[in-house]
Each structure stands twice: as C-alpha cells, then as structure tokens.
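Sequence decides. Consider this:

===
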Amino acid sequence: MKFALPSLLWLLLLVPLLAAFLIWAWHTKERLIRQFVQSRLLAQLTVGVSKTRQKVRLGLLVAAVTFGLLALARPQWGFSWEEVSQKGLDIVVAIDTSRSMLAADIPPNRLERAKFAALDLMKLAKNDRLGLVAFAGSSFLQCPLTLDEEAFRQSVAALDVNIIPQGGTAIAETIQTALAAFKEGENHKILVLFTDGEDHEAGVVEAAKAASAKGLRIFTIGVGSAEGELIRVRDDKGKLDFLKDEQGNVVKSRLNETLLQQIAGAADGFYLPLRGANTAETLYERGLAPLPKSEFNAKLMQRHHERFYWPLGIAVVLLVLEMFLPERQKVRRPAGVNTPATNVSVSANADAPIAQ
C-alpha cells in the first residue's frame, strides 16, 4: 500500500492532541456542572446518563477524524499497466569529455557544469525522450533515447574524462553518432552539444550542414571562457599538475565560440554560452518548446488504484454512530412501584362516595 499524498500523514500527529482536548473539555464541563448545580438536582438531571456511552462517543469522533485524514492522504493499493501516448521531442545531449573540460574557468570545472546543465534540461523536458552521447577523440551512445529520467541521470553521472581514452574533440563524428540514435522517419531530431569547441577536427561545419539536411537541428552550448584557463590533471601518483603538450609547454584551453556559432547556424539552431543557472531554461523556452512535438507511445506505466473511499466510508459510518448513540440509557421502573401521579389518583378516588 502507498499514499498519493504522504505529506498529509503528518496531520495524524494532531489526533492525540484532539483526543486530549476532547477529554479535557469533557472533564471541564463535568466540573462546572457540579459547581453550579445542586447535588440533589444534579442527580435528577443526570438520571440514565451513561459515562461509558459518553466516552464511546468521544472515541468514535476521534476515530472518524483519524480515518478522514487517512482518506485525505489518498491510500492506494493494487495497480494495472497502461501504455500512455504523449507528445514530445527527441533530444540527444552530447557532452564533451576531453581533458580540456577539466579547466576550472567555470567552477567546479567545465565538465561538471555541463553535467549539471544537462540535468537541468532533463527537468524541463519531462515529456521528451532524452539520449546521451559522450565524446572526445571519438564518440559513443551512452544512453539511448528514453523517457526514464533515472537512466538518463545515471548515465550523466557516469561521465568523466577517462571514459574515452582517445584525446581530441571529434564533433563531426559526434553529429553522426547522434543521427544514428534517431529512428528513420521521425521528425524534430534535436542535438544539444555541450563543448568548449577546442582541438576539433576538420569538416565540422560541413557535417552539421549534412545533418541538417536529414532533419537534425543542433543547439550548441559553449562551456568555458574566451580568456581560457590552465588545465590541472592528476599524474600516476595522484598528484595535481598542469597539463603540458608534447614540447613540455603548459596547455591553456580557450572556448571557441566562433566555431560553435557556425555549427549551430549551419543546422538551424543557435548558440548559448553556459553562464549562470538559467542556460537550460533559456535553451528550452527559446529553442525547444516552440518546436512541433511528435506523438509516440511511452513505455508501460503503472496506474495505482485509488482506495481513499474505504477510510472515508468508515469515517462517515463512525460519525453517524456518534450522532445517533444516545448518552442516556432507558430507565426501567420495577413492577408494582406506583408513580406519584398514580398515588394522587388513588387518594382522590378514596374520598369519593361509594355508589349504591
């Protein structure tokens, strides 16, 4: 059994307070009655009143409130499988995992910020299928297109600079890998490219134009700064040191915004620098949300059966019982005992003359 609104279960903590308040109010009423009503008169007024029934009525009221709160939390048990059709986009996210992404010009480093932005995009694209491509000197499909947010989240979390040993930034190959992730005949293919654009191979813009002719739209996100930053890596002993080229010179990585603008422009998209916390929101609102969405069948989803009416019905029954349960018991008079009215009638008849 599960609850659709488990946060409301905290209200059950108020039930003992309600019970304590009702008991306190009951005792206070009894005390005040004894103070203002004479004992002899009180005994006549309370003939047949059952304290046990009064306690039972309080218990019924508290139980009714308890079951009412349970009904508000919407208990569910049992489920059925349903195939849900919905409209959405197919979006492949490609993240650069080359060593230049270790530059810390945007803290904590470029790769971590790109991963955070990809997860922000996932939260916005709730009805869209997402896939993930990792690339450096080569590329591969890390996560196929899916509606499973947890699968995409785990795939993003697994990315690091060691996932692809080949150095470089093979953007052209990445575009081909992304194209292969889409099925033939599907429209509105989207590639979101997170990279610094550095150390790229030739023919990238041409590859973007060819992919655009096949229906792929590319949006590029620049990760890094134009001023650049030195790259710190760990050596075999785990010690941090600056990355150096083959000549022993310290490598400084810079964001290639011009190239990323050219790629996006060639594939009917646009370029955004990764700045602040609203980059993914701007990308989705300006670039992705206005696109027409295709209808596709989602995976089978569990539909839990609502059972709130059971505790609600019990609460109603308990309230009805509380309303119709009288506090007074019927007092039966012993046989042969005359009421005062009977005695008066007998005395009056005794004084009447006897008919002859």
The CA atoms of residues 345 and 351 lie 11 Å apart. Residues 2-74+308-329 form one domain. DSSP finds eleven helices and 13 strands in the chain. The radius of gyration is 39 Å.
